[in-house]
Automatic annotation (TrEMBL):
Residues 15-81 form the XdhC- CoxI domain. Residues 169-311 form the XdhC Rossmann domain. This is XdhC family protein. The lineage of its organism: Bacteria, Pseudomonadati, Pseudomonadota, Gammaproteobacteria, Aeromonadales.
């Protein structure tokens, strides 16, 4: 899940609570080339305000024009973009791609607001769930996801959408690499939390859209924890911050844990974590040190690129 999904549901809930009817769009399938994968969402109001995306922009523009013209008055409908020559010319979908989109009209009822609230909590929390939409009755439901499967499933007249916590990046310590890494991660759709208790360096961090916590990263992890869609990276170059973060990070289900430093520094740190941190060999093996792909990076931006590339690689289960 991307942080953009959370922004979509946040706005959907806020607009619904304010008394607005909303239209929630979900990409059900793509054929050919498509900028967004199945499960991508967009929410819109009648006045054209919207958050999220379905494609590179052309589909959104067409949808909003039709919405403001009074279309999409039914509880739900499935529309296809790009499956005829007129669409391909008018919308200019990339490489002949085709999109299938579910459009739901959600009135500002208590039932819909409760549903949106639980979706929001699923994206923020540690539990995965499945959102069910009955295309005949327009009944929507939410139940625990206890199995693996595709993001979108079609079972007769029912659509099932898997919803889980958004990808999260916890950055321990502020440094020039942290700044570049936070910016890259935000662009990649991660929810980003930066933790540092040092007042003098907090004042130097200025990346929009980042959750900055003025506490030790170890305390944040101890109090807030993390879910399995979390990556934890220590980038401060200060052992008092980085080592403590690693000691707590290995107690979490994070899919990626890493700390910045040279090979020599990493060997010294590993020994220090064994001796003073009480970590065993299994714990040490979970920590990627030196962090990131070996691309010969030197500058802060290049190091951040190597870090984020490695995180994305591990997330998708790719070998080096």
């Amino acid at each position: 899940m991307q942080h953009l999904d959370l922004e979509v549901i946040d706005h959907a809930l806020s607009w619904s609570n304010a008394g607005n009817t909303i239209w929630l769009c979900t990409v059900l399938a793509t054929y050919g080339s498509s900028p967004r994968a199945p499960g991508a969402m967009l929410v819109a109001r009648q006045d054209g305000q919207h958050v999220g995306s379905l494609s590179g922009g052309c589909v959104e523009e067409d949808f909003l024009e039709q919405l403001q013209a009074g279309r999409f008055s039914s509880a739900n409908e499935i529309i296809r973009y790009g499956d005829n020559d007129t669409d391909k010319e008018r919308l200019k979908l990339p490489c002949g791609g085709v999109l299938e989109v579910l459009v739901e009209r959600l009135l500002p009822t208590e039932e819909h607001q409760q549903h949106l609230y639980h979706l929001q909590q699923a994206l923020l929390g540690q539990q995965r769930c499945i959102r069910g939409i009955n295309l005949e009755t327009a009944k929507i439901s939410l139940f625990p996801d206890e199995s693996e499967g595709p993001r979108i499933e079609r079972l007769g007249m029912t659509v099932r959408v898997r919803i889980g916590p958004v990808r999260r990046l916890v950055i321990a310590g502020i440094s020039p690499v942290s700044v570049a890494c936070a910016d890259f991660a935000r662009t990649l759709g991660f929810e980003v939390i930066v933790c540092d208790p040092r007042e003098e360096v907090l004042a130097t961090f200025d990346v929009p859209g980042i959750n900055v916590q003025p506490v030790l990263p170890s305390l944040y992890l101890e109090r807030k924890g993390c879910h399995a869609q979390t990556a934890i990276v220590a980038l401060s170059h200060d052992p008092r911050i980085d080592d403590l973060a690693m000691i707590d990070a290995v107690q979490t289900p994070a899919f990626y844990i890493g700390v910045m430093g040279s090979h020599k520094t990493s060997l010294t740190r590993a020994e220090r974590l064994r001796r003073s941190g009480g970590l065993n060999e299994q714990d040490i093996a979970r920590i990627r040190m030196p962090i990131g792909l070996n691309v010969g990076s030197k500058t802060p931006a290049e190091i951040a690129l190597a870090v984020m590339a490695d995180i994305v690689r591990v997330y998708y289960g790719r070998e080096k």
